[in-house]
Design goal:
The chain is an all-beta fold. A 10-stranded antiparallel barrel has the order 1-2-3-4-5-6-7-8-9-10. The chain is globular, with a radius of gyration of 16 Å. Helices cover 2% and strands 67% of the residues.
């Protein structure tokens, strides 16, 4: 259950990515929380060969921001129908990038069965809750050259463990 006072929960994350037609799925545990109308997901990726990367994802008012910190550092922004600047840094490369987002949406909670229980902000707007599904499709450009087409889904569910 989400703590309604702090609006935080430990979550199981499933990150599915389709990059140039190749499908990959990764599982993480992390933290989901909300502040006002913004929703955050935090998790850490660990790779034996390259080290640790902490990722924070923020969704607010139809905009997605992803910040990664650690052995790899990057900032990406996504707004449906818009091009957004970002950057990437690693020990091996550093470059500016642009994302051109064709699809961006989020679904929270089970509105059919639990709509009456969904928490509301003071202005009556429904607040995000778990489970959460976030999906975005985008083209990435480096130096105005298309470097990849991405379809990403992030599912956050309450971690019962």
């Amino acid at each position: 259950m989400v703590n309604q006072v702090t609006d935080k929960a430990n979550v199981r994350l499933t990150l599915t990515s389709e990059i140039e037609g190749e499908l990959q799925e990764h599982q993480f545990t992390g933290e989901w929380f909300r502040k006002g109308r913004a929703v955050y997901v935090r998790y850490t990726e660990t790779d034996d060969s390259s080290g640790e990367v902490r990722t924070v994802i923020r969704w607010r008012d139809g905009q997605l921001h992803i910040a990664r910190r650690g052995v790899v550092e990057s900032e990406q922004n996504f707004i449906a129908g818009a091009r957004q600047a970002g950057e990437y840094k690693s020990p091996f490369a550093r470059f500016k990038m642009v994302t051109d987002t064709s699809l961006l949406w989020m679904q929270c909670g089970d509105l059919v069965q639990r709509g009456d229980l969904q928490p509301q902000a003071e202005d009556g707007e429904l607040l995000p809750m778990l489970p959460m599904l976030l999906e975005w499709h985008y083209n990435m450009y480096v130096d105005e050259e298309l470097t990849g087409q991405f379809k990403i889904k992030l599912k956050a569910e309450l971690d019962a463990g």
